[in-house]
Amino acid sequence: MMARRKKGKKNRISIDFDGFDEMAERIDKLAGLAGLQKAVEKGLKASKDYVNAEAEKAMQKSKLPAKGKYSKGDTLQGLDRNTSVNWKDGGTYATLKIGFDLSQNITSIFLMYGTPRMAPDKALYNAFYSAKTKRKVKEVQKEVVTEYLEEIMRG
Q1: Which sign does the torsion angle of CA 37, 26, 28, 19 carry?
Q2: Are 46 and 35 in contact (CB under 8 A)?
Q3: Are the C-beta atoms of residues 76 and 127 closer than 8 Å to each other?
Q4: How far is CA 51 from CA 38, 42, 79, 96, 104, in A?
Q5: Cβ atoms 60, 121 nearer than 8 A
């Protein structure tokens, strides 16, 4: 299946909503593999935009521990904004990284998971991994892929 999550890849986003397989088949018939890849990329990028916006909300000074000490910019600047989709297996498996670029700053790990002296920031963690976020990501993906399918059908 295209763009499905592999186990152990928590910091990747995948296309996974009810009806995706049927839509994928229709797009493939109408626009071929290139069209299907374009639909998947649009869905992944829209998902990442949504997740990043939620993370930015959670990173507001008033919502962070230590009186907002971590909102000064370094941590927020580490939010991965790269929207390059990586294709594997002959163009049938796509991944898009979400989260923070840990090579720039590891503070996000301490914020999301806590330390012995600091409780985890649930809002930041939930921006990426909550059931609500996962449901909304599926809605965003379905909307984007449906719009793309309708665009193809209109010609």
Answers
A1: positive
A2: no
A3: no
A4: 20, 14, 10, 12, 19
A5: no
Q: Could you tell me which residues come within 8 angstroms of residue 111 by beta carbon, excluding any fewer than 6 positions away?
A: 64, 65, 70, 75, 120, 121, 124
pTM: 0.86
With bands split at pLDDT 50, 70 and 90, how would you rate the model's confidence at 149? very high
What are the structure tokens assigned to 149, written together?
Answer: 């399918």
Query: In 15-130, which ranges are continuous DSSP H helix?
Result: 20-58, 74-77, 107-113, 122-129
pLDDT, tens only, 112-122: 999 898 888 89
**Lateral strand order in the sheet of 93-97:** 12-13, 93-97, 86-88
Distance, in Å, from the CA atom of 38 to the CA atom of 43, rounded to the nearest integer, reads: 9
Q: Is 139 left (phi over 0), alpha (psi -120 to 50) or beta?
A: alpha
Token representation of residue 75? 């941590």
